[in-house]
Amino acid sequence: MPRLLVIAASLALSAAAPPQQLPDPAVVATVASLPDYIPQHQVNGTIRIWGHGSAKRNFMGGLVARWADEFQHLQPGVHFENHLYGTASAIGALAVGEADMALLGEEISPAAGRLFHRARGYAPTGISVATGSLDANYFDYAHMIFVRRDNPLARLTLQQVGAIFGDDRHCTPRPIRTWGDLGLKGEWAGKPITPYGWKTDVDFGLFVAERAICGSHRWNPAMREFVHLPQPDGSQYDHGQQIVDALARDRYGIAVSNVRYTNPDVRPIALAWTAKGPFVPATNASLVAETYPLVRIIPVFVDRAPGRPITPVVAEFLRYILSRQGQRALIEESAYLPLNRQTLLHERAKL
Amino acid sequence: MSIAFALAAAAITPAPVPLAPHVAPGLVTIWTSKALTPDMVRIAHELAAKGVHVSIRSAGSDVAVAGLYTGIADVAVIGRSATPSERQAFEWIRQRPPAEEVLMHGSAGIPAHSPALAILVNRRNPLAALSPDQLMRLFTAPAPQYWRDYGVEGSLAARPIHLHMADATSGTGRFFRDAALGGRNQWAWNRIVEHGQGDSSGRAVAAAIAKDPAALGIGETGTAKGLRIIPLRIGEALIAPNPHDVVIGRYPLSRTIYAYFDRPQNAAVRPEIRAFLAQAKDDQQRRSDGSE
Question: By the CB < 8 Å criterion, does A16 face chain B?
Fold first, then answer.
């Protein structure tokens, strides 16, 4: 009963969180398969959490409050400080000693990794805690590759994505520049491919570079980049929407965006990690299983000096997040997806 | 159960707490790069005589900005402009952008002291000058570029141009992109060789050009021994990275030292910070004749 009261209290606190759809039954089943949180140690102290969130849009407040309340119910000596101002400040705060945990809303950027290393002399330790959503804004949606609906291309490997969007010969020795390079025949064969996508040197672009272009910044020079555009009525024309709209006007284009922006003239194509497959569309199930290669995996970073353990209070809280209870809170209080059992156990082993 | 009970039971505030900067009266905390530390120490000595004490941390530019947005540092002094991500970090915490002031000029060519970028060619290459448009075309045009397209005659004329520079994501690379390419990310990678990050990249660029008459590189005058430094043609003028044109900001590829700090809304900047900024600008003014 006490736990129910605490959960109810946290639900009241999470009123600012976006309304959630009922979780996918397959996702619920994944969570049910995860191990329970069993405290290994009784711990005390304050955990200063920096990272993904916003003072203006409190999309993370409900989740973090639920995590903190449930954990504190079992570990009453632990207190929390909420510094979820946004991912941009999280690794910096960890590096200068102001944060105990950096909860990111994306993969760590190369610049953030260099900053931490310069400050501390070693790399930050990353622990995966969630799978990015299929299509929910602020919850690190997966990236999809789109072509025009009349394009016969059926599927791509991750390496082919890199060869289309990148220009790094160490990563993909043979760049793909025409539709014939992908095996299309007839009128398509000699037509150059025009790639459309996010601005290449910021968050979304950095993710695609990390996953598909071996972390290189050498993008295809033909890349057409898009950024959010403010509209006269105060609304915003999202970069992802502009990308898909531009693709709809270009029969020979290819685009990276998200299905939340799709239109009737384009379609997402199936992807695979390697030519052996499986080639899968992005779905909740393929994201959780990590069979879809442009899935986002959300990390927490902590400061662990070489040869030293993670601070016990932080390790214990991460052990809770990486449990059935923590992942259930995740799917009920946010649009994130849970980690699959194999990944979760792998991450727990780091603690 | 009432909402009041729920709030009392909360283990964490539901929204991020406002950040309180670490403030000590009479003290200004400066985080900066190793290269700029001697300048900061000199300014600190001058300020001490005026009753303002300066704490300096030689942290590196990126760490310095982190010190600022986490409220530990009062001022971040760095040899480049803040990146969009660094500005975002500050703004999302304070709900306002960081204040930015130009503090001093970079050097004309001293490695690691925010040197101006120099366009370098092999001593056997007769290239006379480049316009800013030509420089942009060299690094971005998709088609191959030949020396004859840039007025070079003789045996080099028909040879393709090979380009060398620091890693494009380094501070030097980003500065070059912003100053010379208008911030574009569409680089002609098939003719560009990158030479890493940090102070060694300038020496590596120079070494590559010394071996190849068909090469052109973006480096520094301080590591250009045995190479030719190509001036930029701005209108009728040919402008090279000499100390005078760098200090007055006439040479387009000269760098700037910036101070970033918090300017609170409806409140004055702390007097210790104002005193530091004034002292630094006074110091720059007195040294503007330059000894390079």
Answer: yes
Q: Quick: pLDDT tens for B180-225.
A: 998 888 999 999 999 987 778 889 999 999 999 999 999 988 888 8
Delimit the domains of chain B by residue range: 3-106+255-288, 118-247
Task: Give the chain B residue nearest A218 (alpha carbons).
Answer: B189
Residues of B in contact with A109 (CB under 8 A): 85
Write down the ipTM of this complex.
0.85
B14, A61: Cβ pair inside 8 Å?
yes
Residue B5 has which token pair? Answer: 């009970």
Q: Strands of chain B (E only): list them.
A: 27-32, 53-58, 75-78, 99-105, 118-122, 162-165, 192-194, 215-219, 227-230, 232-234, 237-239, 256-261
Q: How far apart are CA A91 and CA B31, in angstroms?
A: 17
Higher-confidence position of A33 and B245 = A33
Using alpha carbons, select from A240, A243, A210, A205 the residue that is nearest to residue A224: A243
CA distances to A234, B103, B153 from B156, in Å: 56, 43, 6
Query: A149-184, pLDDT tens digit by residue?
Result: 999 999 999 999 999 999 998 898 899 999 999 999
Q: Give the right CATH number for B3-106+255-288 from 1.10.3210.10, 2.30.40.10, 3.40.50.10380, 3.40.190.10.
A: 3.40.190.10
pLDDT of residue B288: 64
pLDDT at A145: 98
For the domain spanning B118-247, the CATH number is 3.40.190.10
* Record: contact B6-A9, CB cut-off 8 A: yes
**Each residue's pLDDT tens digit, A138-157:** 999 999 999 999 999 999 99
CB contact under 8 A, B17 and A83: yes
Structure confidence at residue A203 as a pLDDT band (50, 70, 90): confident
CB-based contact, A334 to chain B, within 8 Å: no
